[in-house]
TrEMBL record:
Residues 682-825 form the TIR domain. InterPro entries: Cys-rich_flank_reg_C (IPR000483), Leu-rich_rpt (IPR001611), Leu-rich_rpt_typical-subtyp (IPR003591), LRR_dom_sf (IPR032675), TIR_dom (IPR000157), Toll-like_receptor (IPR017241), Toll_tir_struct_dom_sf (IPR035897). The gene is TLR4. This is Toll-like receptor 4. One of its GO terms (biological process) is MyD88-dependent toll-like receptor signaling pathway. One of its GO terms (molecular function) is transmembrane signaling receptor activity. One of its GO terms (cellular component) is ruffle.
Amino acid sequence: MPGKCVVFSPACITFSLAMLFELNLKTRSLNPCLEVIPGHSYRCMELNLTRVPSGIPNTAQTLDLSFNPLKILFSNYFSSLFALRFLDLTRCHLWKIEDHAFWGLNNLSVLILTGNPLQILEPKAFHNLPSLQRLIAVEANFSPLESLPIGHLTSLQELNFSHNDIDSLKLPVYFSCLIFLQHLSFQLNRITSISVGDLDALSSQNLTLVLSRNDIKYIELNAFAGVHLQQLFLRACFENSSIMQASIQNMSGLHVNSLVLGDYRNIRRLESFNKNLLDGLCNLHLQEITLIEIKSLQTGSSFSSCINNISMVRVVHTFISEAAYFPTNSNIDQLEFKDCQWKKVPAEKLSSLKKLKVIRITHNKYLRGFEVYFTGLLNLEVLDISVNSLITHLSWVHLLEGAPNLKHLNLSFNSEIHLKIECSGPAKLEYLDLQHTRLYLPGTVPSFLCLNNLIYLDISYTGTNVIAECSFCGLDNLRVLKMSGNFFANNQLVDNFRNLTKLQFLDISNCQLTYISLSSLASLHELRLLNVSHNKLLGLHPETYMHIPVLTTLDLHNNQLAALMEEDLKNLPGSLKYLDLSENLFDCSCSHVSFLQWAKNSSTLLQNVKNMVCHSPVDLKNVQVLDFDLASCKISTATVVISVSAVLVLIIILILGYKYYFYLYYMMVLFIGHRLSDEKVTAYDAFVIFSSKDQEWVKQELQEPLEEELPYFRLCLFYRDFIPGVSIITNIIKEGFQTSRKVIAVVSSHFLESRWCNFELEVAQSWQLVESKASLILVVLEGVDKTVLHRKLGLFRYLRRNTFLMWKDRDFSRHVFLRQLRSALLEGKTWTEEELRLVLKK
Ligand SMILES: *[C@@H]1O[C@H](CO)[C@@H](O)[C@H](O)[C@H]1NC(C)=O
Ligand SMILES: *[C@@H]1O[C@H](CO)[C@@H](O)[C@H](O)[C@H]1NC(C)=O
Ligand SMILES: *[C@@H]1O[C@H](CO)[C@@H](O)[C@H](O)[C@H]1NC(C)=O
Ligand SMILES: *[C@@H]1O[C@H](CO)[C@@H](O)[C@H](O)[C@H]1NC(C)=O
Ligand SMILES: *[C@@H]1O[C@H](CO)[C@@H](O)[C@H](O)[C@H]1NC(C)=O
Ligand SMILES: *[C@@H]1O[C@H](CO)[C@@H](O)[C@H](O)[C@H]1NC(C)=O
Ligand SMILES: *[C@@H]1O[C@H](CO)[C@@H](O)[C@H](O)[C@H]1NC(C)=O
Ligand SMILES: *[C@@H]1O[C@H](CO)[C@@H](O)[C@H](O)[C@H]1NC(C)=O
Ligand SMILES: *[C@@H]1O[C@H](CO)[C@@H](O)[C@H](O)[C@H]1NC(C)=O
Ligand SMILES: *[C@@H]1O[C@H](CO)[C@@H](O)[C@H](O)[C@H]1NC(C)=O
Ligand SMILES: *[C@@H]1O[C@H](CO)[C@@H](O)[C@H](O)[C@H]1NC(C)=O
């Protein structure tokens, strides 16, 4: 009943879930493993697998099957996985490996069998592994070496049999075939004695042999005679120091490049002191010795003179009082003390070691003092006193007096150092590392004046505040300057690096910089790497790039850039290979479309593009810059075009509107006039339009004779009859045209010049057409240009209803003019009774 399942019942859900689960299981059973790199690398850790999952493709090179109960590796177990190079079978409960179990794995290079309780290794178990280089079988229950069928694995470079049950170092003959072997570890096995001939089968002369944590009780005299090793680890091998001493004695004749002797911190065995502990070393041939946790040096008055001929001596985690002395006439050229609880730099004692080239005194957390300097160490080139707790005033003069050939000085990771400004001629120092040590004075005064040969200077995170422009003066040969995590005055980089013309690497990240002046980088023509990440820059000056023409790496990540401007992009040096712009405040608006386009096109140059995300606009926040849709900008380009054209059209309309303002006005007037024309009653005989410059004339020649002599006419004159506070156009229409029977236009040269009068005239003319009511009386004054007049008045002059009068300033003409005017005005006049009476009385 499939229909039932539409109903939302718990039973149905359970059923569907079960189906899903089963489906999931089915697909998973094909390949339940994690695909680390598709087709290449698979992790099938801890999946309760009992065999190789069939879903692993035969292209897989890396397969991790650890923590699965495989138990037995049968023949051809991995036959389909020909390409395997790395196979991890850690803790697979393997107890048996059958013949040809690894058949077909011709390219397998690393096999890990750690943590398997192996009981049966069939004789051909490791056959068909011609490429195997590393066999790691820690805790694999291996016992006698002879029984291990590995003699044919001639490519082996590393055999790690740590933590097994091997009880003899007697190397089987097959070791003579393992000519590439470099690492052989028998750490934590059960080897108790070493005899002459045990290492005879060793063919490699370059082997690192690890015998640490075997409880070695007996080493036969000359057991190592003639043996050549690269490195020998003998940590925590001897129960007490007398056994250790005797064992070292019996190792005479061994040639080993580096010997590591001592204990582990958590194993407290070597208690008693034996001042001749290391005397046996005289009979060994060593280049390096590392002494770790040698308790016997605790009361330590002296090192054995047998370390004299060893060129490098390292002492790690061993308490050495300052009083301990070193053999005179020593040939030691490298000396290292790590974590040795010094309180002061033992300069006096070490000054006896005239051959010293390298001194390293590191990780001593109580080491604070460095007041006494070395003397007469003419060979000293490297002095590393990093990672201590030094609080000191450093005097270049004294330091370099005692070690005039010092090239490397490392004082990094200390507490605080005051650098004195003093100088006694140019020093040979080439590398100076002061990072993470609080420094006093650099930045405020030129502290490096005599370090002309310095190539490398690291003052990162030293609390330096660069105020003085000459802070770096004297560093004429500097190539690398690392000074991240410091400060610059006003958070601005100005001319601070002026003379560092050879600088190739400059790290000024994390300096809170808000501004980098153009001149500050202008002399750095050889700059190849510039790191200004983690600052607060809004940009670099586009011309900056022109001054750094060979730049290959530019790191601007974590600043406040909104985009690179077009000029920046144009000026980027052609040599640039690495540009990190991630974690900036990108503005993904279309105003930066050229940058966004460029970014899309520059994925080989740009680093960390995943972290190049938009900061604004809000709707694009956290969108990757490279995912920005450029097409969206094209649309808005169209909108821009449209709006620009709209604005243009509007402007044109406005211009036209301004130009034809009167005409528009006139149209409006026509329209309004037409609507209102019926409503008004005639109140005036004539509306006089004239230029205000002719006002006097109007008063004398029109107003007085027409209004004060019989028959009386009433004129509409703007200076007298217009209603104040009402717009002129309304007045013209309401008070002028609408309420007047006729219109008198006083045409003078002023009239013709005035746009307003012309307009009024035109309104009057049209009015005449619209209403056949107010007919026009044109009064033309003297001195009016005839041609202009003709052009302006055109045909209206000849219209029947119009009257055309010329006025001349002569008595006779004036009389005629008035008569003509009166008769024109009389036409159509309606008389009031009183007027009639008055006229008739006359
Ligand atoms: C592992 O698989 C076996 C059967 O192959 C099963 O009996 C056992 O319970 C499984 N163990 C775990 C932890 O799933
Ligand atoms: C084994 O390695 C060689 C050289 O790296 C390669 O040419 C060959 O294809 C590899 N064989 C398999 C089966 O992947
Ligand atoms: C051998 O394996 C042990 C344990 O995994 C490891 O600590 C040691 O470094 C390895 N030795 C070599 C020589 O790789
Ligand atoms: C000797 O072994 C070391 C690693 O232990 C290796 O770096 C060096 O190249 C080897 N030298 C020779 C000559 O094989
Ligand atoms: C050193 O060799 C001598 C002579 O073979 C022997 O007597 C002594 O026990 C050996 N010492 C150690 C600690 O193996
Ligand atoms: C060192 O150990 C050996 C063997 O256990 C013992 O015989 C000897 O007395 C011890 N020596 C010292 C000085 O403790
Ligand atoms: C150091 O080597 C020189 C020759 O290189 C030798 O004469 C001297 O005895 C050796 N000193 C020690 C303590 O082994
Ligand atoms: C100085 O020492 C520190 C800490 O040991 C180290 O990280 C740094 O690389 C050293 N500097 C140089 C220039 O070797
Ligand atoms: C910078 O170098 C020029 C010539 O290379 C030199 O004349 C000038 O004194 C130097 N300035 C400083 C402050 O070192
Ligand atoms: C620049 O400096 C920052 C932090 O100081 C660092 O994370 C980054 O790797 C440096 N960039 C380059 C290219 O070295
Ligand atoms: C993108 O790159 C190609 C070649 O890499 C170039 O021809 C094209 O002009 C570039 N386009 C832009 C917009 O920079």
